[in-house]
UniProtKB/TrEMBL annotation:
The lineage of its organism: Bacteria, Bacillati, Actinomycetota, Actinomycetes, Jiangellales. Gene3D superfamilies: 2.160.20.20. Keywords: Membrane, Transmembrane, Transmembrane helix. Residues 697-756 are annotated as: Disordered. Residues 720-755 have a biased composition (Acidic residues). The chain crosses the membrane at residues 760-780. It comes from the Bacteria. This is Uncharacterized protein. InterPro entries: Autotransporter_pectin_lyase_C (IPR012332), Pectin_lyase_fold/virulence (IPR011050). Residues 697-719 have a biased composition (Low complexity).
Amino acid sequence: MTCRWTGAAADANWSTAQNWADCGGGAPGDGDGVVFGAGAADTEAVNDLGGTTFSVLRVEEPGYALSGDDIEAHFFNVSAPTTLATSLEVPSGAGEHLHHVAADLTIEAPHQLRFAQGADATDIVNVADGATLRTRIGGGDQALRFWGGGTVELRGTTYAGTIGLEDAVTLRCGGDDCGGAGGAVTVVEDATLEFTGDTEFQRPITLGAGGVLEPYSLVAGPHAVTLAEPVTVGAWVRVQGGTGGDPLEFAGDLHLGDDALDLHGAATVPQFASLTSDPNGELRVGTIETPGSFSIEEGQLGHEGLTSVSGTGSLLVVNDAVALGPAGSGITTVGNGATVGTADTITLDEDIRLGARSVLATLAPGAGLTVTDVRLETGGGRVETRATPSFVDLVSVEGIDGLELASAGIDAPIIFSEGGSSTYTGDTVAESGAVALRRDTSVTGDLEIQDAHVTTIHSNHADLHDLVPDTAELSITGDGAFVLNDNEAIGALSGSAGSVLLVDAASGLDVTGEAATAFGGDLRGGGTLRHSGDGALTLGGDWTQNADGSRLAVDGGTVAVDGDLGLTAATVQGSLRGTGTVGSLTLESGTVAAGASPGCLTVNGEFTGDGTLGVELGGHEPCGTFDRIATDHQTLGDLTWDVTVLDGFAPAEGDEFAVVTTAGPGSTDLPAQEVTSGEYAFDAVWDGTDVLLRVTSAPENPTSTPSPSDEPTGSPTDGPGDESGDGSEDGSGDGSDDGAADGSDEGSGGDDDLLPDTGVWTAGGLALAALLVAAGVLALRARRRAMHAA
């Protein structure tokens, strides 16, 4: 019979026949079903039929409070919210037995839902329609499965058998409510095992049974959760590790098989636990949207599969040499800004793929990371030392993109060690700290130094090496330094700050390329800066620190010195320009031309050698409008002059320009030379103190008009008493004495001085003119020499 509760009696006891309908006039007995539905006079029902086993317990209407003796029923079906203040015991034999919870069912503590199962029994609870089953669960060692789209909230468990979570059901527990040891929990399809408090979970877990699962199969959330027994991954599943600072611990081992685990949040395989996988298994940590972190504390000889970490904020910590598996195992991929690092001192022999500005790093003081095989993928990678002291040693770096280096300080270097190789194709940026280049072609392309100290180190540093490519542009854009303990050749030198340190006399840097660049930083040390390329280099900084014995060798191209290189010996086979200072200057068939446009170059010591002296003349102001080299003394030999008269300037015959000035004693004679520039002719002479360019011939009608500041106060044709500036005495402008416009002899003093009507001087007039011209020239030269030779 199926007995329906009416509650019509004066009491609420199940044993009272008047409380039931459709029950044959009596109370329910063994094998009968009990139904609590609509229309009851009393919704309190007290089971006083202990020992009676019902076929089914059904609750169809809300508001019932069932209490009393334990209720025993082979099946239960709850479709309305129900609270039991008693235990529900479900006996079952072999085979599967299906129960339904379609509305919230709460079994109050210390009562429980207990499955009394025979051999080979499986009880299935379908928790549907978003319902929640809140209960303590007990029972034997058979099988219990939860289906549906609802939630099971464990209030404790002593169930010894296996528990299966299927469909989209969620099993939640935390702390002691998760119970003790028992059979495995299997989470398949869209089901979830979720922890609601700190706990040590003592059941084995299997996540997935094939396919790709979208929701999280296991969630630790903001709680400290230790999985004390093995976790096996049997599908492509997702796990949310710790999100509150405590990682999810796979303390009982983690096995991936041929499947994949996507981890978000934090997790770890702690000491004494193992990570194993088949060759096709994969551990995936984090995504672009959701970061994850995973720490492997010791060697994982059974991890043969793939490992990947992705997304900014995602971290893979490997604290053992074989944390990622033995040499030759699966590739480890680091992408989208993620990090692989260590807090220990290890050597990673695994194949590391680094892309999209992802990172290899040391994470703690005393850590050391030696990486034997790194490949840079699209977007390039970063190497960081994040703590001091520590180091990263890049043994082999290959790939298709660039590399960024960020060191925590001088005692946390990033090293390109001897015996390794670099074959990546991108540029290198050294951002901070210390970088040590110890092998040929340590970096393979252009090198930008920001705030780092990049040091070249070689056992025989006097030889020319190739730690940086000969074609590379070296740029220093911050406060960093390029420290050379050997000899290097580069394509170009540029940047706005920082310094290049040539450690000792055997250290050198050779610029070999064709580019035109400027370096505004300082030079330091006693080595050699050589420019052998066809390009141009402007030096805007100083070379004064530890610069004794330093050398600037302009073997080719053009170098402009605009800073203070006052302790540096310059030799020139190419071309030297600039407005700065050098210590000494030797022309070795090269060219020196002060300024960029007219300017002054200072030589603190000797200016000597054979070559070309370039001079631009644009006015009478030294350094401002015409070139000058100021030196202590000159011992110049054969000079070739390259004089340019700039547009807008028309020097007059007799003008002098002191283009090389000296301190006086110690200088040697320089043979006088005739020099031409267009229509101008000069004498180049040594007057015992300065080298002068003296205009000996100028065009009568120069195409360029002198500016007023360049006009002489008189001209070689000025006559006595001439106040007009035109050679006449009376302002007539025609060269006559009487103001006649036709140059006639009226008032001229006679016919002996001029041939009639010709305007040509006679012998007497010519002699007088010669004397007047000579006097004017001498006076002019004296005035101009006083003004401009100083």
